[in-house]
Amino acid sequence: MKYIGRDGKEGIINRFARHVSSGKAETLKTFGLDFVFGHREGAYVWDATSDKRLINCHCNGGVFNLGHHNPKIIAALMDSLKELDIGNHHFISEQRAILAEKLAQLTPGDMTYTVFGVSGGEAIDLAIKLARGYTKKLKIISAVGGYHGHTGLALAAGDEQYRQPFGPNPPGFVQVPFGNISALRQAIDDDTAAVIYETIPATFGMPIPPADFFPQVKSLCVDNRILLIIDEVQTGLGRTGKLWGIEHYDLVPDIMVIGKGLSGGIYPMSATCFGKELESFFHENPFIHISTFGGAEVGCPVALAVLEESSRPEFLGHVRELAEIFAHGFKELKAKHPTILVGLRQLGLMMGIEMVNDQCGPIMTKACYGHGILSIYANNDRRVSQLLPPLNIDRKLAYEIIERVDGALKDTKEFLSL
Ligand SMILES: Cc1ncc(COP(=O)(O)O)c(C=O)c1O
After folding, report:
1. Which atom of ligand 1 is closest in space to residue 232's alpha carbon?
2. pLDDT class for 372, splitting at 50, 70, 90?
3. Contact between residue 404 and residue 55 where contact means Cβ atoms under 8 Å apart
4. Contact 343/387 with Cβ under 8 angstroms?
5. Which candidate, 356, 375, 353, places its Cα nearest to that of 413?
6. Whole-prediction pTM value?
7. DSSP codes, 160-221
8. Ligand 1: residues within 6 Å at CB?
């Protein structure tokens, strides 16, 4: 291998500590999680300098929905490299237009327009800019415990712990408890531009909203002429068993944000999608928002291949089939580990293992690692371990993951004397 494992474990860690992040290196070493991503294939990642192998049930929150080095995605990139490069973001782009047209066909309702970005945070920033620019109002209401990224306006819509060291929040951002309609109603005033929610707040431990929550949010937005921004960065692209998580709630947002999995795990790509009426905001100055690398042309066929694969009915059917295996498996695990396991929060393969207290998540991360599973706790609700396997694993691997999680629950339970 040309790139992987050239310097041995200590060499890699020391260089990383010297030049990337001394704090991360120290923390991960202390917790015995000094795994260095080496060879990767399908659902598996191997340590760069040992034979340690993990089943990737973190998938960077959906980046690896289609597994590592998915052959269809690699083929799309290899092909596009023969003709394309970044392109120029000021000019008319055939590749961006083709990808945006595909998104228009696949997104709910009449979201015919897309502005591309590189990261989820950047795409959320644009969603908020657009909401404010179009409505000429300031207030943005988001969920306590929600997470939309670490960039400017996305950060401002997130929790205080991530923004506190950086000075006062820009004006106009308000958070209300997720799932609480009366709190939302009270927060709305004449200066409210938009409400922004993840369909299922991942960093908040995947609380699954009841069926009537989003329809109520939508009607509040309609009644008060407020825009609804839905963050599908984690729930999009088949994760929940439908192409978009919000489809489970049978409504059309005004703005939808897609990221992570759109990259195919290979080429960064995010998207802010919206309808014709909102696009009119850009008529006065079409260059008011630009991104040099957003929608880079070489990445467009990659994202197109992701969309083609993720929207296949057989693919989505497979996700739902796997979801049933996990639902059944966790019912058994709950009966087996009642002192630690509260249950599985689940919509399709958007899964959070809910445990009894907030020591459980971090210990479970380590225990899963010991059992060959990469699964990371939810930072805004540490009772929960996120379980996000690739969407195209086979049934056998799903059973194996449940078996390994069984072992990890047993170890966590013993460690915490539960
Ligand atoms: C729901 C959600 N929105 C937005 C983001 C931000 O994405 P990025 O890290 O690509 O900026 C994330 C990242 O984890 C996320 O989970």
Report:
1. 1
2. very high
3. yes
4. no
5. 356
6. 0.98
7. HHHHGGG-SPPTTEEEEETT-HHHHHHH--TTEEEEEEESS-TTTT-PPPPTTHHHHHHHHH
8. 61, 119-121, 124, 147-149, 198, 202, 231, 233-234, 259
State the DSSP H helix or E strand holding residue 400, giving kind and residue range, or none if neither.
helix 395-415
Rounded to whole angstroms, the Cα distance separating 371 from 120 reads 31
Place of tokens 């609480």: 180
The two structure tokens encoding residue 124 = 């959320």
> For residue 247, what is the DSSP state?
G
Report the C-alpha gap between 380 and 183 in whole angstroms. 20
Q: How confident is the model at residue 7 (pLDDT cuts 50, 70, 90)?
A: confident
**Residue 222 backbone class (left: φ over 0; alpha: ψ -120 to 50; beta: rest):** alpha
* Residue-averaged pLDDT of the chain: 97
**Protein residue with least CA distance to atom 2, ligand 1:** 148
d(C-alpha 404, C-alpha 412), whole Å? 12
> What digits encode the pLDDT tens for the residues 285-341?
999 999 999 999 999 999 999 999 999 999 999 999 999 999 999 999 999 999 999
